[in-house]
Amino acid sequence: MTKRQRPWGYQDPQNAPQPNWQLHPDTIGVRAGLNRTGFGETSEALFLNSGFTYDSAQQAESAFSDETEHFLYSRFGNPTVETFEQRLAAIEGAEAAFASGTGMSAVFSALASLVSKGDRVVASMAMFSSCYVIITEFLPKWGVEFELVQGNDPADWAAALSKGAKAVFIETPSNPMMEIVDIAMVSELAHKAGALVIVDNVLASPVLQKPLELGADAVMYSATKHIDGQGRVLGGAVVGSDAYINGIVRPFTRHAGLAMGAFEAWVLTKSLETMSLRVARMTDNAFEVALFLESHPKIERVRYPFLQSHPQHELAKRQMSGGGSTVCFAYKGDKTATYEFMNALQVIDISNNLGDAKSLITHPASTTHRRLAPEVRAQVGITDSTLRLSVGIEYAGDLIHDLKQALG
Ligand SMILES: *Cc1c(COP(=O)(O)O)cnc(C)c1O
Asked: Do residues 41 and 182 share a domain?
């Protein structure tokens, strides 16, 4: 047997051709961050290792004193995780990305690395309930103040930001009510107040909304949602400038231990290759489903950003290139009747995930959003008959058939 070449190529990557034009995000999603080893494998290699070796004690010393680019330990960095980070940053058009174990560790590191005792965080009220817990329960334990505003009210933002802030956190569209926050308007006010703007872009996904182009400073993802989009792994990411990601977030996370695992990074890197195809299909399906639900007499109201009936339809069209995969609607009936409708579905699963290839329905008031204070839940508009439908990539006719039979 001939001895194969050892993969030292990783340290000195092959001179892959670098196109001399700006690639489309769909191409970037398939190719960015690919750093082949000396074996020349087609697909991305999986570096399922916790540590790294050194040729000499001196090399280890210089690696630790940050004089070389040698990987040290997978909590600080791993080649597979770096591939995922580089690819996601390239899709987003950002300088850098940090990949974390979950979406929530991304939110936590984005905020906790930035704020200190006495700082203020201003956030839109309609947010994912674990984000709400971090901002209203955990950060205040460490002396960080917060103020929640009505995300669609410019006067509310102006009043809250007139008092100054260190960070602004917005989720748009919001989960589950699909409320839209004007990213450009809030970013302008926030920058005048000296705040860094972090956008939870989970519902739109990197495909449909580019917060950095609208003036935001950082974007966070639950990679668990559309990025994996196949219900397999947990993951998260914060994307932004080199100064913020590598100067603020990473020095915090490397010690707090919020790293993404190499296997998850490998799955998610492969997922990025198909993300734009999946999101486009889900978005087409969701629009058809939203139109059907809006026309049905047993549906009280539908909230979908690209429906004419959405109160912020114009704004949604301005800052998103598609309405997304999530349709929020209210069933005409009480909690019991709403549950009966959910239980009658034959294709669509009852589950609390979203952005998945499989269509999933959730009752937010009793599951994902039960941690919100009841008055906040009411203010945001989540009732006992509110349902969130994450539309998958199945054939749209089957999804509509399923909804029709369950409603009938
Ligand atoms: C799911 C979700 C998160 C949290 O992500 P995990 O990967 O579950 O930790 C944060 N924000 C929004 C809007 C989400 O939907």
From this structure: yes
Across 163-176, average pLDDT: 95
Same domain, residue pair 103 and 237 = yes
Whether residue 57 sits in one domain with residue 101: yes
| Cis, peptide link before residue 173, omega less than 30° from 0 | yes
- The boundaries of the domain holding residue 188 are 17-271
355: left (phi over 0), alpha (psi -120 to 50) or beta: left
| pLDDT tens-digit series, residues 357-401 | 999 999 999 998 887 778 888 888 899 999 999 999 999 999 999
Look up the pTM and report it. 0.93
Ligand 1 atom nearest to 104, measured from its CA: 9
In a domain, 221, yes or no: yes
Angle at 179 between CA 173 and CA 182, to 5 degrees: 75
The residue to mutate among 100, 102, 104, 203, having the most atoms of ligand 1 within 8 angstroms of its beta carbon, is: 104
Q: How confident is the model over 117-121, as a mean pLDDT?
A: 98
- Total structural domains within the chain: 2
Q: How far apart are CA 169 and CA 109, in angstroms?
A: 13
Mode of pairing for the β-strands spanning 167-171 and 196-200? parallel
Do 265 and 289 belong together in one domain? no
CB-ligand 1 contact for 234 (6 Å cutoff): yes
